[in-house]
Write a structure and sequence with these properties.
Layout: E1 7-10, H1 26-38, E2 43-46, H2 54-59, H3 69-79, E3 84-87, E4 90-91, H4 97-110, E5 115-120, H5 125-131, H6 140-156, E6 159-163, E7 181-185, E8 202-205
Parallel strand pairs: 1-2, 2-3, 3-5, 4-5, 5-8
Antiparallel strand pairs: 6-7
Helix pairs in contact: 1-3, 3-4, 4-6
């Protein structure tokens, strides 16, 4: 039986929230990850924000450093060798599925198959609306569910076609030939980076709460 394994969160997007603004520079985030691997932590994970929340703007006179987690994990991948690299979590409704699939597949390959992709609907609706104002009335849980479905198809098939539901706005965020269909061909993917498909990438989804819309 495998023993218990521990991971650590690196402060990619925690400045101004859990910690003061300017809590950690980009170099310090990378150093934390490298030292975590040296201390035998199984995984390092970075959280995700694309815009600053209202309460953070009101609390601090200077903007926080929100480092993009996939780019930060790619840098960490170059400086580590065994620690798994996780998104903890990635806000899927704010991400375009085709581009995200390509980014994760690339990160998985340059890291030697160490990626764990965890996604969620996100904790701040104001952030979602500021990033995607055209989807302000959309259900984030529906967007997340359809995003996961799209990712499964993109990761599992070299040529893929996907159709969303009529009441979901996710179709407007995927390059398509029609308003509700996605056609894509992802090259350079010798492994399908998805759980249950013989892949090294594990994908998780944080359960949504009743308040998340």
């Amino acid at each position: 039986m495998n023993g218990m394994k521990f991971g650590i969160d690196v402060p990619t997007c925690l400045s101004g929230m859990a910690y003061p603004v300017s809590f950690a520079t980009a170099d310090e985030v990378i150093r934390i990850a490298v030292e975590a691997e040296a201390l035998c932590f199984h995984e390092v994970a970075g959280n995700d924000h694309l815009s600053t929340q209202r309460f953070v703007r009101e609390a601090w006179s200077v903007p926080p450093d929100y480092f993009e987690p996939l780019m930060m994990l790619a840098t960490i991948a170059a400086k580590t060798s065994v620690a798994r690299l996780a998104t903890g979590i990635l806000v899927l409704p704010m991400r375009e599925p085709v581009l995200l699939a390509k980014q994760v597949a690339t990160l998985d390959q340059i890291s030697g198959g160490r990626v764990t992709l965890a996604v969620a609907a996100g904790g701040y609706r104001e952030e979602f609306e500021s990033v995607a104002p055209d989807l302000a009335d959309a259900s984030r849980t529906r967007l997340m569910a359809e995003g996961i479905e799209a990712l499964r198809i993109l990761f599992g098939q070299r040529r893929s076609t996907w159709a969303g539901t009529a009441d979901s706005a996710i179709s407007s965020r995927i390059p398509s030939r029609s308003s509700r269909r996605c056609r894509s061909s992802l090259a350079a993917m010798p492994r399908a980076p998805f759980a249950g498909r013989g892949s090294n990438v594990r994908v998780g989804c944080r359960p949504s709460s009743a308040r998340t819309k």
